Amino acid sequence: MAPFFVLDQVSYCYPGSYKTGVYQINLQLQPGTFLAVLGANGSGKSTLARLCCGLLKPTAGQVLVEGYSTANDEELKYIYRRVGMVFQHPDNQFVAGTVEREIAFGVENRTLSSAAIRRTVDEGLVRFGLEAVKNASPHTLSGGEKRLLSLADIWVLKPKLILVDEPLAMLDPGAKKRIARLLADLRHSGQSMIWFTHGLAEALTADRVLVMVDGRVVWSGPPADLLTMPEQARAWGITLPAATEAAYQLGLKVPPVTNLDELVSVLWR
């Protein structure tokens, strides 16, 4: 199967500066792929995310979505229908006065009937558990509800690829579990996704991981392999799962554990 999403030697320099945000990134995605991009703050993750969806244009190389190039202004409208971006700070993407109107905003720009729009908005409200706050202002929601709304905004548009930038940042544990579960559901439904984060725990079910340092990809491979190289992962600014860190600190000489249940099982042996 041919890749539908391609980064070919993509580099980006910040305007008016010699500083390189991203340098010679190569990537090919097949439909249904879940890719995680890991790195510390300032590693280039967010810049790469914006390059992937066409919000930034490469200084060199090209980003192709089903053959359409982000460098071509005439082709961006096709790319925006195929790639959706969920930003790290949800407030930055809200444009409507109520949750319901916010979900409807993007759908109304499609050639759909009123009945189809109504049905799609209702599906978004139900899937992301936002029915009870549909008449509230997006900016008055809790952090978890804002994240749910930002995901609903993109999901109702049915993009081929969803980009999520630090989706669990600054959320309480309950909200993190809920968002992670919804993203896992999307993943299992065959949704192509790129997850940008510094935490390896969020990326353990990814098909593949890219690690970025100073705008460059320094490592690529299965996420489980990173668990076996904790010192290097820490040096790259990657946060290991809490259970993995605990096991290493206890000196447990076992295959890396990834969650509390595994850690307890090992301790009871």
Walk me through this protein's architecture.
It is a single chain. The chain has 269 residues and is an alpha/beta fold. It contains ten helices and ten strands. The strands form two sheets. The protein has a six-stranded mixed sheet, with helices on both faces. Strands 2-1-4-5 form a four-stranded antiparallel sheet, covered by helices on one side. Helix 3 crosses helix 4 (114-127) and helix 3 (99-107) packs parallel to helix 5. The longest helix has 16 residues, at 173-188. The protein is globular. 37% of the residues are buried.
The biggest sheet, with number of strands, parallel, antiparallel or mixed sense and barrel status, is: 6 strands, mixed
Percent of residues in beta strands: 15-25%
Our measurement of the CA-to-CA distance between the termini, rounded to an integer number of angstroms, reads: 45 Å
Structural class based on helices, strands and sheet pairing: alpha/beta
Outline the low-pLDDT stretches.
none
- What is the total tally of β strands? 10
Shape: globular
What's the number of helices? Answer: 10
Look at the structure and give the mean pLDDT. Answer: 90
Rg on CA atoms, Å? 19 Å
SSE sequence, one letter per element: EEEHEEHEHHHEHEEEHHHH
Order of strands across the widest beta sheet?
6-7-8-3-9-10
**Helix proportion of residues, in percent?**
25-40%
